[in-house]
Design goal:
This protein is of the alpha/beta class. It is built from 12 helices and 16 strands. The strands form 4 sheets. Strands 10-9-8-14-15-16 form a 6-stranded parallel beta sheet, sandwiched between helices. A 5-stranded parallel beta sheet has the order 5-4-1-6-7. The protein is globular.
């Protein structure tokens, strides 16, 4: 995009404004703010109009609850410029997720050239992310370029020791990225429910470090009876909802020795304060590390944002599934469609 001649032209930009809403207002504008550098550059270079398109939620068709009006209002506060226009939710169009060529041409009618700055949707071959790039001259936005640079460095030349911290519900959801990281990372710290799948994780080799203790609960409830136990002594019928203090200390020490850290996924049910300590410990360790740090995935990003630590992380990725697929070594359709991305 840095080489694109946008003066006097209409620019169509795919952004990732899939933000949480509360009471009809944007509850977290992180993704909107992440797009501002690209939008500001286009305006500075003389674009006559900047039309923005994004999905919001997963509506099955037009639905007022998923209108872009709240996003329009917040963007107007952050970047008031009459040349900016926010199109309606791309998911309102039935041909969006099937990458309908006719819809791509309709989208393309809004611009003379196309900029994809939606890394969080780059792993989807949709009309707004992939199809339009075959209709208009296509460029990567500043955010997309930075995401590829930051995550690509983890694959190609991470400073060592390289420590990856991975959490979540199931190994099968992240088995591809775990295998890829096992070939590159010096340590893979695994938390969350997926840490219980020890047999599957053992196949990844000696780099994997698993929890030794857990905060177990009698039920999957925020106020359930809970106790600290060894991971081998979780009572029958109980659930491990967080890692214990010994694991927190061990994981924090591994992160503290790292020169590169990648974190994706919580260590427990961090939405509930009684089971959030493991995730907090990892967030604090990553923020304090004398290392190049990258955090990706909605829950991990939410944790560092809520703890006020985001400005101490070198790169907070806007992509969840996209970042994992890139680290897994998969090609992203939205990136492949851009000639020089």
């Amino acid at each position: 995009m840095r080489d694109a001649d946008v003066a006097g032209k209409r620019v169509l930009v795919r952004v990732d404004f899939n933000v949480p809403l509360e009471d009809g207002r944007v509850a977290d504008d992180t993704r909107i703010r992440a797009a501002l550098p690209t939008l500001e550059l286009l305006l500075e270079r003389g674009a006559t109009e900047v039309a923005l398109m994004s999905h919001l939620g997963r509506p099955k068709g037009p639905d007022p609850a998923y209108s872009m009006e709240s996003v329009r209002a917040r963007l107007a506060e952050l970047l008031p410029d009459e040349r900016i226009r926010v199109l309606e939710n791309t998911r309102f169009e039935p041909g969006e997720t099937t990458n309908d060529p006719e819809l791509a041409r309709r989208f393309a009618a809004h611009g003379d050239l196309y900029v994809n700055d939606a890394f969080g949707s780059a792993h989807r071959a949709h009309a707004s992310t992939e199809g339009v790039a075959h209709v208009l001259p296509a460029y990567a936005g500043l955010l997309l370029e930075r995401e590829l640079e930051e995550l690509g460095a983890l694959l190609e030349s991470p400073a060592r020791p390289f420590v990856a911290v991975v959490g979540g519900a199931k190994v099968e959801d992240k088995v591809g990225v775990l295998r890829s990281l096992a070939e590159r990372a010096d340590r893979i710290l695994v938390g969350g429910k997926m840490a219980e799948e020890r047999e599957a994780l053992a196949e990844l080799g000696e780099a994997v470090v698993l929890p030794t203790d857990a905060v177990a609960a009698a039920a999957f409830e925020p106020e359930a009876e809970a106790r600290l136990v060894s991971v081998d002594e979780v009572p029958d019928g109980w659930l491990a909802l967080d890692v214990g203090p010994a694991t927190r200390e061990a994981f924090s020490a591994e992160i503290g020795r790292a020169r590169t850290v990648f974190w994706n996924g919580p260590m427990g049910v961090f939405e509930w304060p009684r089971f959030a300590e493991g995730t907090k410990a990892v967030a604090l360790a990553v923020a304090a590390a004398d290392a190049h740090t990258v955090v990706g995935g909605g829950d991990s990003v939410r944790a560092v944002e809520e703890l006020g630590l985001a400005d101490r992380i070198d790169w907070v990725s806007t992509g969840g599934g996209a970042s994992l697929e890139l680290l897994e070594g998969k090609e992203l359709p939205g990136v492949l469609a851009i000639p020089e991305a």
